[in-house]
Amino acid sequence: MSNENKTDLLIVGCGVAGLSAAVTALEKGLSVTVLERSGEADFGGNSRWTEAYMRMKNDSEISDDFEDHFAENIGWNIEPTVLGALSDAYHDWPPTVRAHSLPDPEVISTFADQVPPTIQWLKGLGLRFEPQPIYLLTQNTTRIAAQGGGLGIITRLMEEAVKLGARVLYRTTAVGLVLDDAGQVSGIRTKGPDGRVEILSAKNVVLASGGYQGNPEMMTHYIGEKARHIRPVAPGGHYNKGEGIRMALEIGAAPAGEFGSYHAEPIDPRSRQPEAVVFIYPYGILVNKNAKRFVDEAPGTTDAHYDNITRSIADQPDGISYVIFDAQVEDIPRWTTSIRSEVKPFEAETITDLAAMIDLNPETLNETVECFNAACPAGDDPFSPLQLDGRGVDLDPVKSNWCRPIVKAPFRALPVISSNCFTFGGLKVDPHARVIDQDGKIIPGLYAAGETMGIYHRVYTGSTSVLRGLVFGRQAALHAASATN
Known about the structure:
This protein has two domains: 3-261 and 424-484, FAD/NAD(P)-binding domain; 265-419, Flavocytochrome C3, Chain A, domain 1. It is 28% helix and 21% strand. The chain has helices at 16-27, 66-72, 80-85, 95-98, 105-124, 149-163, 216-223, 243-250, 302-314, 351-357, 362-375, 465-484; strands at 6-12, 32-36, 53-54, 56-58, 61-62, 129-130, 144-146, 167-170, 173-179, 185-191, 197-207, 231-232, 255-256, 262-267, 285-287, 320-325, 346-348, 411-423, 426-427, 434-436, 442-448. Strands 1, 2, 8, 9, 10, 11, 20 and 21 form an eight-stranded mixed beta sheet that branches. Strands 12, 14, 15, 16, 17 and 18 form a six-stranded mixed beta sheet that branches. Strands 3-7-6 form a three-stranded antiparallel beta sheet. The chain is elongated.
């Protein structure tokens, strides 16, 4: 084995998780090699495209609901014995609990505790964070964002990594983990630009290669037939093929997070824009190809519910829906910011003409709109678009807020599909980002961070995914440095 193929820390992936691990390790004096499937111009996966919203009050305090939201969404039908064990000291947990797919309270607590120092570390590298305008018209938590978004973060981290001596191998894919005779991860089998397989050895490996939203086979395997209706929200997602997760599972890693689910955003399928979100639907109705409503469009603030609403769109015929709204939308302050498609809505003077434009049955769509209109509140309660107003309709399905008759021409429609920001399923890790096996033991030499680690169930804890990558990439590198030095 030549010296150039040996490194202290071998990192798979150049997003926020991989690069935060790389720079941290280099600062601690480790040698670092980073593998990136894409070419240099496209490095970063999902991180390149995200606006990097962060669930924080300011750049030194997390939002008040940060840990509570995770606690409310730890999984489905958890056994009382498992929940009871979580109150014991970690070393007293039975192996089945240590390997359970739910997010450990210790991991979430570490996550919350390490967000502020991680942001301060990034500020020391010249990055800046502040409240930013957001496309959601209503939200129930606080958020800030990095200036320059995810691209700004990975660009600065890559500059620092290269300056400190990182070896970055582009167009190189990890295809398997290498174990020594004692069962420690000692390297990775890689496939380079020429297609040749090579083994790179390392004292420790960090898997930060994203989820599996860019792999139709894994999407179908875990999410089912409706996966054919779901596409990545941005171009970077197509690089996330799931190998990091798969190769760790093959050596006995414990799965974590909800493998059959994903963080969903509603987008206009006609658009060429990344993350072409459509968040105007709470102020109209959503109908499927049968011109029927199928979901409560406004159960609460948009940020708390769009995940579930968008996933329900994937269950509709052909995985598509249409938001129907009218000219009264002009009454809503900055309503245009809730639509990020460059393609204009369909527009017509009658519902019948609108139905023809979007190839829906006109009689059925008219009936759906008329039924909705008749059920809208007739009292004096004001329509309050920027706060929950309780103006609901008692239909099947109900609509809980922001109901007013759709009567003012021109009538508008936008197609909406379910896009995949990232998959929930990943690897079980401890607070140091060390990967846990199915028996609740540490897999020596192996770490996971970012989308490759699994912590989400039920509903995404919004604006925490970039933070997850930054915090646990750094946690992995700090632990690897302490173990190496």
